[in-house]
Amino acid sequence: METDSITRRGAETIALFPLKSVLFPGGRLPLQIFEQRYLNLVSHALKTDTGFGVCLLKDGDEVAKVGVKQQVHRVGTYAKVVDWDQLPNGLLGVTVEGRHKFLVQECWSEKDQLLMGSVDFCGVDFQGEEPIPVDDEHEVLVGLLQQLVSHPVISKLGMSIDYGDLRQLGWRLSELIPLSLEHKQRLLELQDPHERIRELEALIETMIQDG
Asked: Which pTM does this prediction carry?
């Protein structure tokens, strides 16, 4: 990743939630919370209307283990809790929504093993920017996204999608197309929505050729 391509808004310290998932701005991710460090984190986020960073794990496990460090990819997405409930299995279930991409400059573990990071928020390619009109040439991609979103599991997340925004088209396809986590992370790290769409088109073409 070319970190110099990240336009910075200023460094902030946030809690990090390492996962074997890649979250994009505007995307929603359901989580089951059972570790005390994350129960405390979610409780604090709900009380203060704040969020935390979701990062793809590079090394280590999602569940903390003694003597095993968690290492994360440097580009992640700041997320906020948009829904929560007690699950049938007794665990706390939350749904988080991605808001703003960031670049991790430094990270460390607190005494309770909660991972913290000093991050720079990206100055481009984040939720809330002006829409980029979708051209007619991308109608096939729009149709593909609508088909993916119609799946009951995805529909249940209640995402609000502007199918006429090229940026959102790229984010949602990157999340929902069955790609490796490495490919998804690469797509997240891209700052140019047009470049992301071109990469998606190439990946989809390869998938079609491979059957």
From this structure: 0.90
Distance CA 45, CA 73 (A): 23
pLDDT digits (tens, 9 = 90+) for 143-155: 999 999 999 999 9
The CATH class of the 3-122 domain is mainly beta
Residue ranges in 7-55 assigned as alpha helix (H): 36-48
- Nearest of 209, 194, 200, 190 to residue 1 by alpha carbon: 190
Integer Cα distance of 65 and 164 in angstroms: 44
Residue type, 168: Q
Parse the chain into domains and list their residue ranges. 3-122, 136-209
Measured CA to CA in angstroms, residue 73 lies from 22, 49, 184 at distances of 10, 26, 12
Residue 171: name the closest of 82, 74, 101 by CA: 101
